[in-house]
């Protein structure tokens, strides 16, 4: 499973060589591919970073209080809401992209970073609610009752008790929201027609057309695009495990 990743990194150090002539090891490694990738894809990497971080902030801002209400309070229609969130995960992305294109055209936010942030958040919010809500349901109600006895309102209980206890679930939701936005290609292709807000996924797609004879530069771009996701996955591994399984057993 890791061999394609190795081959990508290996090819990135052998610029100007076709894929059929690649050595198994970079005997004469060079950084020309990375220089070409950084000079052409640097702005796109920055756009992807802004979009991904913005999508994470929007997802957590909306999903965390929503999960708090759906899991710890008797909200009328909560079961129907959760069922609708599950159904939303089955909607093909192209359907959402086509609908957003018409709406964005009317609102005048095509080819904008804000538009991409909102589009990626549309996918991340339902998933984040499902993850965080499953964890919050395991929080003992006795903690909330004790806070209420001490005079804390719902908002204060949410900020000072529920949020710290839900840290693992929030990190898990944030990481997946980041990965959704960072790896998005469909929305980037549909909602952008120029380079005003072009993420790196679309940049790689267009880069291949211009550098099809130099796969070293293409693979260098792909390697650079893979580094942030790999670093986050390694750094947050223990939080992901705890957040994904935290709601599996009722406390």
Blueprint of the fold:
Layout: H1 3-12, H2 32-72, H3 78-88, H4 93-107, H5 113-136, H6 141-149, H7 154-165, H8 167-182, H9 186-190, H10 200-210, H11 215-235, H12 237-245
Helix pairs in contact: 1-11, 2-5, 2-8, 2-10, 2-11, 3-5, 5-8, 6-7, 8-12, 10-11
3D structure, described in words:
It is built from twelve helices and no strands. By secondary structure, the protein is an all-alpha fold. It starts with a helix and ends in a 6-residue tail after the last helix.
State the main characteristics.
73% helix; 251 residues; 12 helices
Task: Give a brief rundown of this model.
The protein is mainly alpha-helical and 251 residues long. It is built from twelve helices and no strands.
């Amino acid at each position: 499973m890791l061999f394609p990743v190795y081959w990508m990194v290996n090819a990135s150090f052998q610029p100007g060589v076709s894929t059929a002539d690649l050595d198994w090891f970079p005997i004469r490694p060079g950084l020309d591919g990375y220089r070409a990738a950084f000079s052409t894809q640097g702005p796109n990497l920055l756009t992807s970073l802004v979009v991904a971080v913005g999508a994470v902030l929007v997802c957590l801002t909306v999903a965390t209080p929503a999960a708090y209400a759906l899991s710890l309070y008797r909200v009328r229609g909560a079961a129907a809401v959760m069922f609708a969130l599950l159904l939303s995960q089955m909607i093909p992305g192209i359907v959402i992209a086509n609908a957003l294109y018409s709406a964005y055209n009317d609102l005048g936010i095509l080819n904008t970073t804000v538009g991409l942030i909102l589009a990626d958040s549309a996918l991340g919010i339902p998933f984040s609610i499902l993850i965080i809500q499953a964890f919050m349901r395991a929080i003992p109600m006795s903690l909330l009752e004790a806070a209420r006895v001490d005079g804390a309102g719902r908002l204060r209980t949410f900020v000072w008790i529920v949020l710290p206890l839900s840290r693992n679930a929030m990190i898990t939701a944030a990481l997946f929201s980041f990965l959704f936005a960072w790896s998005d290609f469909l929305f980037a292709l549909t909602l952008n027609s120029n380079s005003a807000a072009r993420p790196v996924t679309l940049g790689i797609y267009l880069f291949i057309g211009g550098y099809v004879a130099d796969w070293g530069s293409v693979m260098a771009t792909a390697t650079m695009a893979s580094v942030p996701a790999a670093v986050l996955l390694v750094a947050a591994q223990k939080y992901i495990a705890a957040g994904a399984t935290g709601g599996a057993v009722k406390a």
